[in-house]
Amino acid sequence: KLPSDSFKYLSWCDIEEHDVRGNQLHCPRVRKGPSEEELFFRGEEHTLKKRKQVTDTEKWQKKLQENWENCAELNLSFQDLGDLYQVENFKRILKRLIRVEKLWLVDNSLTDLSAIRLPRCRELNVNKNHFTSFKQLPKIPQIQHLSLAENNIMTLSGISDFRHTPLESLILKRNPCEFQERYRQLVFSSLPNLKMLDGIPKLPEDCSPPDISFFFKMCTIL
């Protein structure tokens, strides 16, 4: 057994005599520990923390200690959110990230964050999730760099919602929409301020209107 074994199912807020705050955690994990029964059968009942009556003052102190509101950069990737409790707790944390500027949510099996607003987020990485539409992304009015690689986005419908954002770089690699005809022209025509797509800068041929490029592919037989 390791000295830390007695703390492995506790959140840092439940560990006494420390001054760690939420905005000092670089890669926190959202977890729900095993039930008391399961711990008993595992022979790990020593990891149980004695339950005590929590006062309103202690609840308020715990909320202040979490301090998610002041996170500027946060990595919440690889959370393995297999339980409904974990998903709801995860979204509760996201809703408090009102000052986050860089956020990584890679490989979390996320499907819909449309109820989340990240007003200051400039860089968002949601690679390897289960998004099927741009409409399922959080509200990110200040976004500059957005990475959506390895999701399941079928069409470019909804991409024009980012037209009025300062979006400069977009990654859509390994999404079904990448195989759409005139894919790059369609993306750049929807987002005229975009400078880079899938790691490739905007090229002259990307600026041609989709209908013109299509016209040049036609063959007239006399």
Outline the structure in words.
The chain has about 220 residues and is of the alpha/beta class. It is built from 5 helices and 7 strands. The protein has a single domain (about 5-205), classed as Leucine-rich repeat, LRR (right-handed beta-alpha superhelix), CATH 3.80.10. It has helices at about 35-40, 55-65, 85-95, 185-190, 210-215; strands spanning about 75, 100-105, 125, 145, 170, 195, 200.
Secondary-structure element series: HHEHEEEEHEEH
Assembly type of the chains comes to single chain
**CATH homologous superfamily placement:** Ribonuclease Inhibitor
Mean pLDDT: 83
Task: Give the termini separation.
Answer: 84 Å
- The top-level CATH class is Alpha Beta
Characterize the biggest β-sheet. 7 strands, mixed
CATH topology: Leucine-rich repeat, LRR (right-handed beta-alpha superhelix)
Strand-pairing-aware structural class: alpha/beta
What Rg, in angstroms, do the CA atoms define? 23 Å
Number of domains: 1
Helicity range: 10-25%
How many strand elements?
7
pLDDT below 50 for ≥5 consecutive residues: which ranges? 212-218
Q: What CATH architecture would you give? A: Alpha-Beta Horseshoe
Per DSSP, what share of the residues sits in E-state strands of 2 or more residues?
A: 5-15%
**Shape call:** elongated
Strand order within the widest beta sheet? 1-2-3-4-5-6-7
Number of helices: 5
